[in-house]
Amino acid sequence: MKPKALVYSKLPEEVVDYVKEHCEVSSFDAPDNTSGSPFMEALKESEGLLGSGLKVDAAFLDRAPRLRIVSNVSVGYDNLNIPELSSRGIMATNTPGVLNDTVADTIFGLLVATARRMPELDRYVRNGQWKESRDQDIFGIDVHHKTLGIIGLGGIGEKIVQRARFGFDMDVIYHNRSRNPKLEEHYGAVYRTLDELLAEADFVCLMTPLTPETRGMISEREFKLMKKTAIFINGSRGATVDEEALVEALRSGTIRAAGLDVYVQEPLPEHHPLTALDNAVLLPHIGSATQETRLEMAWTAARNLVAGLKGETPANLIQA
Ligand SMILES: NC(=O)C1=CN([C@@H]2O[C@H](COP(=O)(O)OP(=O)(O)OC[C@H]3O[C@@H](n4cnc5c(N)ncnc54)[C@H](O)[C@@H]3O)[C@@H](O)[C@H]2O)C=CC1
Ligand SMILES: O=C(O)C(=O)CO
Fold first, then answer.
1. Cα–Cα dist 200/194, whole Å
2. How far is the CA of 204 from the centre of ligand 1 (A)?
3. Ligand 2 centre from 71 Cα, in Å?
4. Cys-Cys with 232: which of 74, 185, 212, 258 at CB 3.0–4.6 Å?
5. What's the complex ipTM?
6. Residue 77 is part of a domain; what is its CATH number?
7. Helix, strand, coil share (%) of the chain residues, nearest 5
8. Which residue minimizes the CA distance to atom 4 of ligand 2?
9. Is 88 exposed, middle or buried (0-12, 13-18, 19+ CB in 10 A)?
10. Domain shared by 166 and 249, yes or no
11. Do residues 297 and 245 both lie within one domain?
12. Would residue 169 count as lying in a domain?
């Protein structure tokens, strides 16, 4: 008999077909946690769970007594309570690596768009404000030959550094849990304490996972340590930043601007204070969202799920 798998996100048909070859699949475009919903009924019998973003904690797991593997279609796994899953002998997997270049492209695009004020200037053209001469009120700042400070130099961070160093001739400083001599040598990246990095960087880019240590790690104190001309880029998770402190820093000119892909609450509420600020460039959490990369992520996650359900060790098993 095939194991039962619950797919709770919209995934490409060919990937769902592959899972169906190996599992009996219940498929939903989005999870519905209300008691008695078809999703919760299917969960009772499911041995595998495949999708992205669903909060999997003790209360949820109490309602999934047969679960053996949770396969995230994402590299971040802050939605999963890993110690709780491990204590119940349930495997968890993610999709590292396959999205590194795509996310780095997004983050670098966001950085350039923020420095050169591209979304604001797009509005300027559309609103008919482009007259004979363009005065310096609309000038941005250079990216090339500036200093990029990256916090969290992992798989994605390295690809951002590659673009900064070799594409834009930037100096790179970084802060990480541990030093990376290979990357230091290859990219000339120089290690800094967090406070040193914040004080020195022209662009501060946050690329850590969301963990108890990184939650709220950039707050009022950290914004005040940054240069007044600094641009802050967040591609990690919204909750790594104190959003109220960020809004205040942008309003008061404590920093120059911010480019954001992630928020404490997603989707970002319509009238969130950030939406009123011209010096904030806002993307809807699309770091990895290209057709090619999302397909690759779905395949990776599906293979992890199937391997786990077959009793094999999945390629991307998350260690507790
Ligand atoms: N905006 C988006 O669409 C996307 C966002 N992400 C986010 O980016 C995160 C990073 O992804 P990867 O680079 O693949 O992960 P990774 O695990 O390869 O790299 C993360 C780096 O952060 C470092 N780190 C962890 N805690 C730290 C701390 N307290 N201080 C300093 N450094 C710390 C780690 O040592 C590691 O080098 C994901 O966990 C996810 O939250 C990932 C993909 C897309
Ligand atoms: O993979 C992740 O962690 C994302 O945020 C979406 O790609």
1. 10
2. 15
3. 13
4. 258
5. 0.99
6. 3.40.50.720
7. 40, 15, 45
8. 74
9. middle
10. yes
11. no
12. yes
